[in-house]
Every structure is written in C-alpha cells, then in structure tokens.
Amino acid sequence: GDSVTQMEGPVTLSEEAFLTINCTYTATGYPSLFWYVQYPGEGLQLLLKATKADDKGSNKGFEATYRKETTSFHLEKGSVQVSDSAVYFCALREISSYIPTFGRGTSLIVHP
Amino acid sequence: DTGVSQDPRHKITKRGQNVTFRCDPISEHNRLYWYRQTLGQGPEFLTYFQNEAQLEKSRLLSDRFSAERPKGSFSTLEIQRTEQGDSAMYLCASSHRDTYYEQYFGPGTRLTVT
Lengths: 112, 114
What we know:
heterodimer, B: mainly beta, about 50% strand
C-alpha cells in the first residue's frame, strides 16, 4: 500500500538557518504530493502541493519539488523564523482517491 | 468563513462509556472527513461523507464507531463502549467539490479514556 516516510524530529534550528525536512514515498500509482503544517493548538493547514513530476510547490518561503526518480518531496526554506515552529506533515493522494496518506510528522523548533 | 469547528475540544471518559463528537464544516463544503491521530503519528483516515452519504469507511472504523451527517451539514462521530486504545485526537476536515484536494482541518477533539 501507499506510505510516506519523513525524517525523525525534532529538528532544532536557529533563526535564519536553512531548513530541509526529508520526505520519501511509496505509491502504486502516480500521486499528488502535499505538505501540511500544524501550529500548536490548531488544525492542519495545507502548506503547498505538487501534482506531477518536476512540479515545484511553494508558499510562505517554503518550497518542495516532486522528484519521481527518487520518490521524494523534500521541504526546504532558506531562512526560518521562530514563527515557523510547528509540526510538518508530508502526504500523498492517489489520483483515484479523495483520501490522503500522511507521514508521521516532523517537529520543527526554531530558536531566536 | 469561520473555518471547521469541533466540539468538545477535550473529553475525558471512563472505559465503557459512550462518547459523541461534533464537527461543523465550512458551510459551502460538500465533503467531510474524520481522522484519528495518535501521539507521534500522522492523521489516519476513518470515514468520509459527500453531502449526507457516507461513501468510504476505513477498516480502522470498528463496529463500536459510527458517524452520521444527517442533513449534509454538521457530522457526529460516536464511539460506544470506549476502550483505552481509543484515546487519541479526532480530527475533522472538509473540502469543496471544486477543490477536493484541499482539505480544511478543524482543531480536533482530544479523547482520553481512563
């Protein structure tokens, strides 16, 4: 079945550092890929998405590129802020389904 | 747009009791989803509705769980004879028919079974 594997957290960075959170996937079809963010006490929010190979999703300074050859969708940001502290979830959705499959989440802690 | 709301936010119950959670989706959204999230895990799909019809249920949804969306608006999730393993965060999400891939999540209901 489909699965998403994320790097273990927490990831702890200083403000303005470069961020990478790794995500790889296994899918039987040709899925769409997503990153969600969950701030403390809030629901998950869609951060960015990509629907086909080599697509780059971007939002709020975050980027991720759909790499079919390496089945990866790593999240990057050039300069993190304290306000980026949250849990980040990678997810995939097969084209034939409305239901996403989520990874376990990676906690990001950014210190001033 | 007030977002997806869930009630209650927290529920503590004793093993064997029944509990019911409510979800109010964004008003123009026709699809509604329930997920369960345990500590250190991502959301796991339970069931989803298109309008009032329950179209898909996960094998995680045992016969002690039942969900309804009687008028195609709010939804309830009931757990009968709760067990300690039911302790989790229960998330609700909704999506619009035209942008079904973008699910809007509520803040969740945290259930603790003692």
